[in-house]
């Protein structure tokens, strides 16, 4: 019996050892997976390095709130780049005085020249005196046709008495106004956002007043830009057509008889003007007899007293 008991004990011990080894072998992959997950979790949840922390502090004042955000700053930089590429702005102006033989004929020639150069008359003024006839025109012409217009007037209309052409470069002014306008529009949007979130009546009134001032300044700036664009796109020419009426004896083609008749006519016109001037004084002529009558009455009364 003892001989049978010992082998059975040895068999039980050997089977128990094998089972524990199998359990350890089966449990080791799970343990390694748990360790890997823990390591991965540690790596994910690990705090960033001090150099990698990026935090944006909230604005501490209203002035900081009014500063453009990152998107506005990007838009401003893009706008600045566009402003850097503004084409050169040059305003051309001119003044011309031309002596012509006949005003009507010269006026027709001017109309043909304007039509060919896509120009138009902005203002027209005519004067007719005893000495001369003047037709003053303010002409607007596209910038590209300005030189051609000047040459056309110089060649075929009449004798040029005077000519003055000037150019004014306004690129710097146009750029400065454009930059200020862009900045004012950005701040206007910021103030409108502040108005939506205003909590007190005092803040609302103050913000509305600032918005009104900004809108007025924006309107002025936009008007200035439109004015510059108009003067750049269309040049201005002040043209004066002049005809002299007075004829000298050396240049006149009229004979002595014609000039004598003109002199008699002018003398008669002068006499009629003098006579009409005297007649226009008739109220004063009526007062003179009254003054004479009163003077005689006063003189006769004085003599009777003596």
Automatic annotation (TrEMBL):
The chain crosses the membrane at residues 271-295. Pfam families: DUF4349. Residues 89-296 form the DUF4349 domain. Signal peptide: none annotated. The keyword Protein biosynthesis does not apply. Keywords: Coiled coil, Membrane, Transmembrane, Transmembrane helix. Residues 197-231 form a coiled coil. The keyword Methyltransferase does not apply. This is DUF4349 domain-containing protein. The lineage of its organism: Bacteria, Pseudomonadati, Bacteroidota, Flavobacteriia, Flavobacteriales.
């Amino acid at each position: 019996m003892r001989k049978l008991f010992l082998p059975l004990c040895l068999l039980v011990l050997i089977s128990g050892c094998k089972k524990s080894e199998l359990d350890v072998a089966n449990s080791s992959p799970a343990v390694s997976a748990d360790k890997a997950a823990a390591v991965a979790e540690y790596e994910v949840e690990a705090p960033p390095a001090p150099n990698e922390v990026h935090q944006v502090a909230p604005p501490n004042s209203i002035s900081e709130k009014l500063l453009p955000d990152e998107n506005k700053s990007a838009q401003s930089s893009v706008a600045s780049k566009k402003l850097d590429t503004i084409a050169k702005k040059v305003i051309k102006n001119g003044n011309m005085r031309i002596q012509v033989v006949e005003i009507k004929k010269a006026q027709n020639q001017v109309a043909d020249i304007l039509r060919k150069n896509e120009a138009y008359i902005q203002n027209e003024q005519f004067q007719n005196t005893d000495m001369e006839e003047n037709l003053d025109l303010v002409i607007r012409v596209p910038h590209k046709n300005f030189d051609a217009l000047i040459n056309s007037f110089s060649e075929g209309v009449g004798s040029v008495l005077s000519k003055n052409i000037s150019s004014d470069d306004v690129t710097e002014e146009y750029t400065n106004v454009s930059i200020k306008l862009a900045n004012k529009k950005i701040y206007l949007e910021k103030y409108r956002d502040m108005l939506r979130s205003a909590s007190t009546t005092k803040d609302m009134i103050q913000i509305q007043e600032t918005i009104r001032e900004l809108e007025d300044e924006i309107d002025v700036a936009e008007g200035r830009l439109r004015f510059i664009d108009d003067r750049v796109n269309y040049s201005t020419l002040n043209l004066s057509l002049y005809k002299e009426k007075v004829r000298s004896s050396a240049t006149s083609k009229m004979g002595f008889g014609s000039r004598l008749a003109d002199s008699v006519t002018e003398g008669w016109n002068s006499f009629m003007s003098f006579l009409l001037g005297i007649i226009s004084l008739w109220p004063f002529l009526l007062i003179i007899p009254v003054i004479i009558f009163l003077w005689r009455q006063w003189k006769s009364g004085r003599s009777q007293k003596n």
